[in-house]
Amino acid sequence: MSALYDTIGLDYANLRRPDARIAARIEAALGDAKSVLNVGAGTGSYEPADRNVTALEPSAEMIAQRAPDASPAVQGTADALPFGDGSFDAAMAVLTVHHWPDPGAGLAEMRRVARDRIVILTFDPACRNAWLLDYLPALAELDEAQMPPMEAYAKHLGDVDVEPIPVPHDCSDGFLYAYWRRPQAYLDPRIRKGSSSFWKLDGLEDGLARLEADLTGGEWEARYGEVLSLTQYDAGYRLVTARL
Question: Which Gene Ontology terms cover its molecular function (predicted)?
Fold first, then answer.
């Protein structure tokens, strides 16, 4: 996955800017943790500025894009965290578990190094709410293949709280289903570069062409127009919190 993000990461920091509303939910879940390990940290999105954060990231390109004042980053992988037991008050991971070579091992490692809690933003692969799947059904197959089922978190972390994280209509973070109320965005190749899902799938041209035709001809609005009146949408993102 490091090699993939060494390519995707060429413009990642501009495409994936943290959304303040999602950040607030993550920070609240971290409680009073003072030291935090961010696993699969990327360019540093959602790292709380008022805590002692250590970032772990496998991609050199992503590390290079971290801001000069960002938390220190260590290059490494989730399944072999280079830290001692109980080194941090909390461990966090944001939309990254599905990229790990062994998610179960990575979750066990997070539990090993965290003293108090673990906070993970992930996606429920059983959720099929997004209208985009009607045009690109292969995305659902990919989600199911790469996303750990929600039961995996309790299996590896113990008791967990799971909360839905609705996506704001003007979400600044360009993850896969962020543009649910801005359908035209999916036709922009640059926007699609912000999500690894579009890099992993071939043969999306027909679905994107149908989307473009439906947007032009009014069929999209006739079928999905009710979402245009919503300010947020449950696309399937979930916040998992384990208190250790």
Answer: S-adenosylmethionine-dependent methyltransferase activity
